């Protein structure tokens, strides 16, 4: 009995030790970084049915350009639990966070926005993040917009937003057709889809310290689209943010490589991204 008691005590102490190590590891991420609040991560959000694989070329283009040497990965479960793989490096103030949603076939823009928030909150708790940038492709843009729609002042402050192939006011074949959507002079769509209407509140709440770069593709085949999203749908972002954003600019990519799913692997997009984030 005495031998069994010692064995139980040993196992208990080992478990306690491992638990303590785990707590130390979680607490030390920010504690190990001097001036943790100076770090300004750039979060990449992929599109519907996609993954962090779609973010890799853009992320590595930033590394190759010397903007950072750090790429970590944030995986968000269906229930919104965020796990981080990798760590911020001391002195590398502009790390990249490749965000991956496990439930990537979920059709709810609002749900994607909640997952985006969970990711930002995780970084805030882990690294004491005060400010950040975002890059979205396709549905990833809706994750960003719905995050901002439900934002609150206690969360880190958005500095720069890059939208690529955004379907802010509809998708071809679903609620839009080539050359059908019309925009007024101020960028306001003549007909608004449900998701777009839900985002109209951003005209009064969009963070005024944030600069926006809107990149969209035109296959140059007469459809004025990237094959999945009309240029007008992408450009409708202007009406939602330009009245409050620090700055707003649009860039059109033309040709076969401007197709919707090719834009995140487009060298011209990489160059725009590098220039915008660097400056």
Automatic annotation (TrEMBL):
Name of one Pfam family that matches: DUF915
Respond yes or no to whether keyword Transferase is given for this record: no
Coiled-coil portions:
none
User: Which positions carry the signal peptide feature in this UniProt record?
Assistant: 1-30
UniProt key word Hydrolase? yes
Matching InterPro entries, A to Z? Answer: AB_hydrolase_fold, DUF915_hydro-like
What's in the keyword line of the UniProt record?
Hydrolase, Signal
Q: Which GO terms describe its molecular function?
A: hydrolase activity
Provide the protein name.
Answer: Cell surface hydrolase
- Organism equals Levilactobacillus paucivorans
């Amino acid at each position: 009995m005495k031998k069994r008691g010692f064995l139980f005590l040993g196992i208990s102490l080992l478990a306690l030790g491992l638990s303590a190590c785990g707590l130390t590891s979680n607490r030390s991420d920010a504690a190990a970084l001097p001036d943790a609040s100076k770090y300004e991560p750039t979060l990449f959000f992929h599109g519907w049915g996609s993954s962090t694989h779609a973010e890799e070329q853009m992320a590595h283009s930033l590394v190759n350009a010397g903007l950072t040497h750090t790429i970590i990965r944030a995986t968000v479960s269906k229930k919104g639990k965020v796990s981080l793989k990798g760590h911020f490096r001391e002195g590398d103030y502009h790390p990249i966070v490749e965000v991956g949603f496990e439930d990537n076939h979920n059709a709810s823009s609002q749900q994607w926005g909640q997952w985006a928030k969970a990711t930002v909150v995780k970084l805030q708790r882990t690294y004491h993040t005060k400010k950040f940038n975002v890059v979205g492709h396709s549905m990833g843009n809706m994750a960003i917009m719905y995050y901002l729609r439900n934002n609150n002042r206690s969360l880190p402050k958005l500095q720069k937003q890059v939208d690529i192939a955004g379907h802010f006011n509809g998708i071809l074949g679903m609620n839009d057709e080539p050359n059908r959507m019309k925009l007024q002079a101020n960028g306001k769509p003549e007909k608004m889809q449900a998701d777009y209407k839900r985002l109209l509140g951003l005209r009064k709440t969009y963070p005024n310290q944030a600069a926006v770069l809107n990149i969209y593709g035109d296959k140059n085949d007469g459809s004025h689209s990237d094959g999945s999203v009309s240029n007008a749908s992408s450009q409708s972002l202007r009406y939602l943010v330009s009245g409050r954003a620090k700055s707003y600019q649009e860039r059109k990519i033309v040709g076969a490589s401007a197709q919707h799913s090719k834009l995140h692997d487009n060298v011209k997009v990489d160059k725009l991204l590098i220039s915008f984030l660097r400056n």
